[in-house]
Amino acid sequence: MSETIRCWLVEREYDDKGLVTLTYATPDGESIYRRELAASAASDVTAAKELSPDQLEDAPDEATRDRYATEADRTATNYDPDDPI
In what residue span(s) does the DUF7967 domain sit (predicted)? Predict the structure, then answer.
């Protein structure tokens, strides 16, 4: 079994085309995973995802990393990983 990393939902952005972009981040905010889906499918979003390291990319800058680390901590404190959010 390959190694996975738990990432927490830190951002949800809606656009004018009916799409939502979900951003999950590692607890330290250093690495992120983005997923785009139809807003109608966003009801199945969970607080955390188990992702392989090759699915992750670096967060763009220090301010974003700090913000994502704060949000990941808040999400982890308030939700179980499989909770809908």
Answer: 1-85
